[in-house]
Write a structure and sequence with these properties.
The complex is a heterodimer of chains A (about 375) and B (about 130).
Chain A (H helix, E strand, L loop, with lengths): L5 E2 L3 H6 L3 E5 L2 E6 L3 H10 L2 E4 L6 E4 L3 H8 L12 E7 L5 E11 L2 E5 L5 H10 L7 E4 L3 E7 L3 H8 L11 E6 L2 E6 L8 E7 L3 H14 L3 E2 L2 H10 L34 H10 L4 E7 L11 E4 L2 E12 L4 E8 L10 E6 L2 E8 L10
Parallel strand pairs in A: 1-3, 4-14
Antiparallel strand pairs in A: 2-3, 4-10, 5-8, 5-9, 6-7, 7-8, 10-13, 11-12, 12-13, 15-18, 15-20, 16-17, 16-19, 17-18, 19-20
Helix pairs in contact in A: 2-7, 5-6
Chain B lengths: L7 E2 L4 E6 L2 E6 L1 H7 L2 E5 L6 E2 L4 E7 L3 E5 L4 E6 L9 H4 L8 E5 L11 H9 L6
The chains are: A alpha+beta (about 375), B alpha+beta (about 130).
Chain lengths: ~375, ~130
């Protein structure tokens, strides 16, 4: 039986634009329009418009909101002021990654949380069950949409529609409105380019999409699908939940220690991370850059150091910017190689040489 | 989607064109559309032996890699060297400059067992998959 997929309010727009729709985390979403390479290039050189309505949208409000979040996520949420955003993880008791998400502070006692599509309900449940001394109100905005405008030309386009976006620094957010509906505008994204993410009610989704698309087209940009977004994020070395992040690897193994504040007080998974720091990491997520264009790494390909199996690719693709294959791979133990070392990826029975590199793979910055 | 009348087709979505006793081979418009943007094509060397219904090479797109099956048994006479630098030709002109190899067939009549344009179109419209 075919699973019943959730639908974006923009599905008719995507179909009219010739998009290929496909299943993603329980949703039917646009995977590509004109072509992955053209869309990738539009975002890197000009601007692209994305429908990301499948991502979760949860508001945490009330006098107990900060305390509740502090016990659930890894970073010190108290450090961000109103109008700021922060990357966070939710861990299990073993320190394994249940979820990565961004927390936006909209008010002293008002936070906006954006989990991955596949995890929205689970994160909501974790928040609902977490202990809180004071009142907290959780709002699951299933009637909201999520659009992203990404690329070097995105600022002018977004500021034209939302003047509050002017001067917004990276990982800052502001509240605005569109057709008398509230809109959360953030300077953030998953592409490595300057970009904005926009959250509002679905009843203005079509009008907002058309307004932005017209401006994007006028700037020689294109609508872009999830396939291009996956290449853009991988070129930056951003791990993807479900692909590179999962419960059997900890935040430290995933290289996300920078999003964990072990000194802020108790949170789920903290004890396990402290133990792991003492005992040493069993594995580490690394960037691999292939030597030959014909060697394109894919998820689950084994990684070797000589005859020794030392790891597994979790995400791999051909980088259109570098003209070579790139991958994220867990290598074990964590110190088995250093940046600059040469390893081999088993590509369907053939060995392809790769160098262990620092991420991002490409010289881009969203700041 | 195009289904040129002068070609024969496999159920693995390759096409074959008779050219003076030789056979030119590529992947179909349907195949390139399903694959998405092609970024690498792996082809056999000139002189290599290939067998009908067995892989002769690979076409790799941004999202996945697919085997290319030979429509006929024979010997590789030419490989499309232009694809090394411009693999996107497979998407742009699957029946033209995006061809893959030319084969000297052992038995040219082997092509008669493949689908004609009408048969292939019906196969694609029924979902493009065996079974």
């Amino acid at each position: 039986m075919e699973p019943i997929l959730r639908r974006t309010p923009l599905e008719d727009e995507h179909v009219a634009l010739g998009a290929k729709l496909g299943p993603f985390a329980g949703w039917s979403m646009p995977i590509e329009y004109a072509g992955v390479l053209a869309e990738h290039r539009a975002v890197r050189e000009r601007v692209g418009l994305f429908d990301l309505t499948h991502l979760g949208k949860v508001e945490v409000v009330g006098p107990g909101a900060l305390e509740l979040l502090q016990g659930v996520v890894t970073n010190d949420v108290a450090r961000i002021d109103v109008g700021q955003a922060q990357y966070n993880l939710v861990l299990n008791e073993g320190g394994g990654v249940i979820e990565d998400l961004i927390v936006y502070r909209l008010g002293p006692e008002r936070f906006f949380v954006v989990p991955n599509a596949a995890n929205a309900e689970r994160v909501l449940q974790i928040l609902a069950e977490a202990p809180a001394e004071r009142l907290v109100h959780l709002m699951y905005h299933q009637d909201w949409c999520f659009l992203a405008v990404q690329g070097p030309r995105s600022t002018a386009i977004v500021v034209e529609v939302f003047p509050e976006a002017a001067g917004l620094a990276f990982m800052r957010c502001a509240e605005s409105e569109f057709r008398r509906r509230p809109v959360i505008v953030t300077r953030s994204g998953y592409t490595g380019e300057v970009g904005f993410e926009l959250f509002t009610y679905q009843d203005v989704a079509v009008e907002l999409w058309r307004t932005l698309l017209e401006a994007v087209r006028a700037s020689d940009g294109d609508p872009c699908g999830l396939a291009a977004r996956d290449i853009l994020r991988l070129e930056m070395g951003y791990p993807l939940y479900g692909q590179d992040l999962f419960e059997s690897s900890t935040a430290l193994e995933a290289g996300l220690g920078w999003a964990v504040d072990l000194d802020k007080g108790e949170f789920r998974g903290r004890a396990a991370l402290l133990r792991q720091l003492e005992e040493g990491l069993p594995s580490r997520l690394r960037g691999l850059r292939m030597h030959e264009r014909r060697h394109i790494p894919r998820a689950h390909y084994p990684v070797f150091l000589g005859d020794q199996l030392i790891g597994e690719v979790t995400s791999g693709t051909f980088s259109p910017l570098l003209h070579t294959g790139i991958a994220l791979a867990y290598l074990w133990p964590a110190d088995v190689v250093d940046v600059g070392d040469e390893v081999e990826v088993d590509i369907r029975g053939r060995r392809g040489k790769a160098t262990v590199v620092r991420t991002p793979f490409v010289d881009r910055s969203p700041r | 989607m195009e289904f040129p009348d002068d070609l024969r087709y496999t159920k693995e979505h390759e096409w074959a064109r008779r050219e003076n006793g030789r056979v030119r081979v590529g992947i179909t418009d349907y195949a390139q559309d399903a694959l998405g943007d092609v970024v690498y094509v792996d082809l056999p060397e000139v002189g290599a032996r290939v067998r009908a219904n067995e892989p002769l090479g690979e076409v790799e797109s941004t999202k996945s890699v697919s085997d290319v099956y030979s429509p006929i048994t024979g010997t590789i006479l030419e490989r499309n060297a232009a694809l090394e630098d411009r693999p996107e030709l497979v998407n742009a002109q699957p029946y033209g400059d995006g061809w893959l190899v030319v084969i000297q067939p052992d038995d040219p009549s082997e092509l008669d067992g493949l689908l004609d344009a009408g048969g292939y179109r019906a196969f694609v419209e029924a979902g493009g998959q065996e079974g």
